[in-house]
Amino acid sequence: MSHHDRGHYAAKHSAGTRVDEQIAELIRKKAAGDVITCAAAESIAEATGKSMEEVGVNLDLLEMRISACQMGLFGFTPEKRVVKAAKVIDPGLRKAIEEKLQDGKLSCADSWDIAERHHLARMTVSETCEALQIKIKPCQLGAF
User: Which residue, 19, 42, 76, 120, could crosslink 124 as a Cys pair with Cβ 3.0–4.6 Å?
Assistant: First the structure.
C-alpha cells in the first residue's frame, strides 16, 4: 500500500477477518505508537508459532505501520530505504537468487531462506538483488 493508504491497512482484508488476540497483545507490547519494526514482527511470529503473514494481517487490522524492513527496502528515516547495490556479486549467491525468481522477482521469504542457507546477512541478499535490478516482492508481512 502507498503512503496515501496510511491508516487504512485493514481495508486490504475481507470484512470477516478478525484480530488474533495472542498476536495483537504482543504487537501492542512491542510497538511504539502505531509503528513496529520488521524484526519485532518476526519475533512475534517466532514467539507465537504463527506465520509472518498472520502477523502481517494483524498489523493491518490494528492499523500498524511497519518500519526498518530487514531487507532495507522501507521504513527508515529520512532515507526511506537504506539498501545499496552490491559492488561485487558472488556467483553462487547470484545463482541461488536466480533459481528462486518468480516473474522476475524474489520473494522476501526466499531472500531470507537464501541468506540463511548461505550464512549471509539478509541485507547482503538485498544488496545483490539491488545490483541485479531484481525486485524483492512480496513482503512476508504483506507490506508490498
Answer: 120
